[in-house]
Amino acid sequence: MAQLLTAIPIVDEHHVDRRRYPHGVAFIDGQYLPMSEAKISVLDWGFLHSDATYDTVHVWNGRFFRLDLHLDRFWGGVERLRMKLPHDREKIASILNNCVALSGHKSAYVEMICTRGSSPTFSRDPRQAENRFIAFAVPFGSVANKEQLERGLHVAISETVRIPPESVDPAIKNYHWLDLVKGLFDAYDMGAETALIVDTNGHIAEGPGFNVFVVRDGFLRTPAFGVLPGITRRTVFDLCAGTGLSATAADISRAEIKAADEVFITSTAGGIMPVTCIDGAAIANGQVGPVTRRLMDLYWQKHTDPQWSTAVEYP
After folding, report:
1. By three-state DSSP, how is residue 127 classified?
2. In angstroms, rounded to a whole number, what is the distance separating the alpha carbons of residues 133 and 77?
């Protein structure tokens, strides 16, 4: 049988991307670009190996919230991963400001990223990779939508185990999310809206992009082991210290979270967000509790406090 002859395709000079992206501005390789033009190489270790760290800060009504804390955590992650940033702290703060200002967003989700980068020779030695810094600003988004913030999120506890801290340090914000994504699909299969997964001891850990708190008899607790020490999590501790509430980090079992008076989650993407249903059962009376509402109100009030927030310099 004669072999079919097919023409060898040509190599295009430029990539054409027909996908749609949110309106925003990115900084990459010294350039400010629309989000649709912000690209990394397929050879970047950040893509190939999830060898990257990042941090996310939000802007609300034209002000960064707790920017210094986010920069501190980002710098710590970069150093512990033995990467090097091409800019100093002041310059990176300026780049973040510029991404927001150029986008025009008054409320934004702003991310800073350092990837291992790529090697000019495709070396497998991470020391030969040229590290890359990227930043972008897109419209503010929340884990919970408006309806969920009013009536509380419905959450399911997945059997998926969080990556142990002995393997990946959770204090270094990272893109190792396959366990969290599996937990999300488990939650969707159970009819819930988002997920919590467990640590290696079977205790409650965290969810995809958020920490969790329980309130019982007026006392707050949040998981201590194997979780990201979130900036919003820290903010809850700071708010409690200023209002006479008691908050501590400790193990939380499945039974304890289901028996709580109140449950809420915390994330830069949404702040303090109530949970009123876990595994199909209501938490207490199934309503957003008074401690949660009090902390939610205090949290957003702090966004205008110059000790907690920094104004974006718009053109």
Report:
1. helix
2. 13
